[in-house]
Design goal:
Elements (H helix, E strand, L loop, with lengths): L16 E5 L5 E6 L6 E4 L3 H4 L4 H14 L1
Antiparallel strand pairs: 1-2, 2-3
């Protein structure tokens, strides 16, 4: 990932689940599915590295699918 961890999630709000961690254990992604809608927070910039990162490409594809 391309995060620097100068800020990070400490506690996850009720209803959210952690879906990705950095190698150092920092939470990198959280998700929730309120009423079947797409809601994801990520701690990196998937649009910058999607060509070399399968995880980033998957995030962008899910976002585009949700927008359709």
């Amino acid at each position: 990932m391309n995060s620097t961890h100068h800020q990070a999630v400490d506690r996850v709000a009720p209803g959210f689940r952690v879906t990705a961690h950095a190698p150092d254990g920092v939470i990198e992604a959280v998700e929730q599915n309120p009423n079947g809608r797409f809601l994801m927070g990520v701690q990196w910039h998937p649009e910058r590295i999607f060509q070399e990162s399968k995880a980033s490409l998957a995030v962008l594809r899910r976002f585009v699918d949700a927008c359709r």
